[in-house]
Structure formats: structure tokens, C-alpha cells
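hey so i finally got around to running both of the ones u sent me last week. sorry it took forever, my laptop kept dying halfway thru and i had to restart like 3 times lol. anyway pasting them below in the order u listed, first the sequence line then the C-alpha cell line for each. didnt double check formatting much so if smth looks off just lmk and ill redo it

first one:
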Amino acid sequence: MQTDIWVAIVVAAIGTYGLRVAPLIWTQRHFNKHKANNTQAHLPIWLSVLGPLMIAAMLGASLIPKVPSEASWGATVVGTLVTTLVWRKFKTLGLPVFCGVLVFGLTLVLLT
């Protein structure tokens, strides 16, 4: 690979890490400050609203196929349905995502 591609990958990795670790560090400092003052810490309301909104935005962006075709839309519908059904049965996060991605890939291969 060329050097500029590696630089872009490293910058993206550092940026992704920073976006994930910054709220964690902020929350830990917030709770430690309240613990030192012997007061009870509460998460800010904006954080409890912003988190689910960001997850919903990622879900909406990931449900639209990159190359719109009947096969990709069909695989998206089947994968979403399987993910929802597995989640309703087990109420976990990892297994529904794994099953949905697996069924999406298999459906896409079978339909094309």
C-alpha cells in the first residue's frame, strides 16, 4: 500500500479511538470529582439523549445498501428481520448482530 493510505488509516483509527475514549475519561473524572466531594453524581441529560440518537443514526445509515439492487434490498430486509427476531428471543447485543450479518451475507450471495 502507499504511504498516504496508511496515514489515512492511522488517522481514522486514532480519531475513532478518541471519539470512544473521550466520553469515558470525561465520565470517570465527573464521577471521581463527585466521589471526592461525597456527593452523588448523575449523568447529564444530554448524554442520555445523545447516545441513543447516535446509535439510531448509525442504524439508519447502515440499513441503506451501498449498491441499490433487488438482491441488496432483499438481503437487508432479511438480515434486519433475523436480527430483530434473535434480539427479541435472547435480549443480547452480540448474537443478534452476528446472526443478522451472517444471514445478510448468505442472502446476498444466494440472490446474486
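and the second one:
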Amino acid sequence: MTQKPAHRNLPQLLGEARRWFEEGLLAAMEAAGAAPVSPTQVQLFAVLDDEGTTVSELARRMGVTRQTAHQAVHGLVGAGLLQQVPDPASARQRLIRRTPEGEHAHREAGAVLERLEALLAERIGTAATDALRAALEAPWGPPGEPDKP
């Protein structure tokens, strides 16, 4: 007797979808000979401003501790993909920016993600992919406590 799969909630499904894109991106970048990076480092690249971002702001955007963000930055600086520069707005802060090699990797990753999105559209249909994008781009408002029964 085949068991029906357990009902998965939206956060689980969104997490699986994110991992699908991350795994595809990491595999494509590795196949292209790019320096290996972790999913946390991929996420850091995604939230980094072109003009540079502080480690504290990166941690906030990623939803991780400052220490986790700092470790990811350190690894990417060591790989030659990021650099630390003085923040012109604060003598105490440093901005994290992409190096020229990091810019190249960022552009390559963007192209891979576009190809993955096209692959997803082939698999689930363009209408479903467009609807997914529209739902995720719609303003959800602040999270609130659902009504209690």
C-alpha cells in the first residue's frame, strides 16, 4: 500500500524551490570552473549592493548572525571575489564590494539563473512560472498572527 506524501507547508516548499535553484547554480558554476562557494556565499552575493554593503547590513538582509555573514565574506575575500574598502560615510565601517573577478562571477551566475528559470518554465509551464513570480513579487505586508480558532 502506497502512503500519500505528507502535506508540506509553504515555507518548506519555498525552501525546496530555493535549494533547487542554488543546486543548479552551484553545479553550473562548478562545471564552468568557478571557485567553489557555499549556499550562504551565494545568498550573500545576491543581497550585496553594487556600491558595497556593510557586513552588518548583509547579515540583516540574509537573516543570519553577523558572525555568519563575516565568515561568508572572509571566504569570498580569500577566493578573490570580494574586497573590503573604507566606507566614505563612516570611518569605523568597511564596505564589502565585488572585485572584477567577483563582478564576472556575478554576471555568470545571473545568466545561469535565467537559464534555470527558463528550464522551470519548460517543466511547469510559462503560465505557472509567471504566476509564481507574480505571487512572490506581490506585497505581502508585515507578518501578523493568524486568527486563532
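quick thing i noticed on the 2nd:
Residues 53 and 130 are 31 Å apart (CA to CA).
anyway thats it, ttyl
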